[in-house]
């Protein structure tokens, strides 16, 4: 099969554009990978998906697990349910408290080789005793990694990192350097647009203010002098001076 030169050039151009846009973070994978979490940790931990083990679909070609995957690119660590459960893996799932998914809690976790619960994230931080002395965390790095793996197996992000809400900023998302005259101009134009939305109310308020501060005419002055302030207040407008 012979491909025309124009069609081949178009395919190569499209491929080059896809690679270039992907390198600069404008593609769908780039936007998803650069997404910064904004929901509180309590809500994120409620989105737990209990691990389920299943047999792999038979037939060819083999289809990859589509969870957390965009255009064939997996963006974050994901639990793979297509696991061949050997005798050793079944023993772990049946006997280890840290792998008892029916009784798993993200705030109180077991660790491998232990039957004691640890409070998360309290036991991940240094603690102070009653004398004011600091001690290392109750969970060492090895068992902290096991707790993090439990989070990943349950479809949760590891939310207890120090910079979870302040991840490294992509260079296309940084604030522009140099003089920001255009930025100031756009800000002022935005202020003008917001003010123009309330223009009708501002005009009506200004007209009412001008009407209220007008001096009494001759007839109103005569009525005020003859009837007095108390009787004429029901029939005459009350004059209001604008507050400066």
List keywords for this structure.
single chain; 244 residues; mainly alpha; 3 domains; two-stranded antiparallel sheet; two-stranded antiparallel ribbon; 8 helices; 6 strands; elongated
Uncertain spans, ≥5 residues at pLDDT below 50? none
Tell me the strand order in the biggest sheet: 1-2
Question: What is the overall silhouette?
Answer: elongated
Total DSSP E strands: 6
Structural class determined from secondary elements:
mainly alpha
Mean pLDDT: 82
Any idea what the radius of gyration is?
35 Å
Helix content: 40-55%
Number of domains: 3
Distance between the termini: 84 Å
Percent strand: under 5%
Task: Please provide the ordered H/E string of secondary-structure elements.
Answer: HHHEEHEEEEHHHH
Question: What profile does the largest beta sheet have?
Answer: 2 strands, antiparallel
Descriptive report:
- The chain has 244 residues and is mainly alpha-helical.
- It has helices spanning 5-23, 28-33, 41-45, 87-95, 141-153, 181-197, 199-212, 218-232, and strands spanning 69-70, 73-74, 108-109, 118-119, 127-128, 134-135.
- Strand 1 (69-70) and strand 2 form a beta hairpin.
- This is BIR protein.
Q: What's this, in brief?
A:
Helix content is 40%, strand content 5%. The chain has 244 residues and is mainly alpha-helical. The radius of gyration is 35 Å and the shape is elongated.
